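Supplementary notes for students who missed Thursday's class. We covered one full example, reproduced here. Read the sequence, then the structure, then the short commentary at the end.
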Amino acid sequence: MTREAIDKVGLIIVGDEILNGRRQDKHFHCTMDLCGEWNAGLAYTLVLPDDMDVLVTHFKWAMAQPCPFFSCGGIGSTPDDVTRQAAAAAAGVGLEEHAEARRILIERYGDEATEPRLRMVTFPVGSTLVPNPVNQVPGFGIANGYFLPGFPSMAAPMMRWILETYYEPGAERARFTMALPNAREADLTDLMETFVADYSDLTFSSLPQHTDAGPRVILSISGLPEAAESAYADLKQRLNEVAVTFEENAS
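Structure (token representation):
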């Protein structure tokens, strides 16, 4: 199998329990750690309720994006678990019991593979399986999305399996940062706009901060190492030309 190189992934976290504060999300940090290993950025993160209409709308949007995405939560067998149905609707397909997933559950649970348990392997038509090393109940992939349990202890190793199976790490990226003490973004807008226009292939960010010593701005550049290093040198030159003080390697 030829693996696809990626530089971004999306993350959707599903669950009323996250939105109402009954459970603290841990998927975000797990996903960020894996993104770091694969030299991939996190394109977006959505936290959504267990609501069919909301999920269909946002899954359709995610399926139209150029990067793959992980969706964590809502693939159980209880009435509030509607992620499987929403994924099918978003992909424009029906639902069916996945024969291989059914075999896995029967092998795992035997006589306890009851109808409610078997609902968990009713997937969108055409889905691929994502193995679950914890309790063997698989997740599924459809379109560019991978739908995983709401438990990070399961979802994280399943994400890793997906990346190892289907995706090559992206190109190594370098990041350069600097702090501009006593600076305000509004005074630097023209310089930043010109710089970004000249280096549209790099990622540039500006973060204002308020400190005990006064205002400051953190500038960050990231991209392929050689290009980012060259752009960073140019940015320093531009700041020197307008007598703006900066401190390198800021965080």
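Commentary. The first strand starts at residue 4 and ends at 5. The radius of gyration is 23 Å. If anything here is unclear, bring it to office hours.
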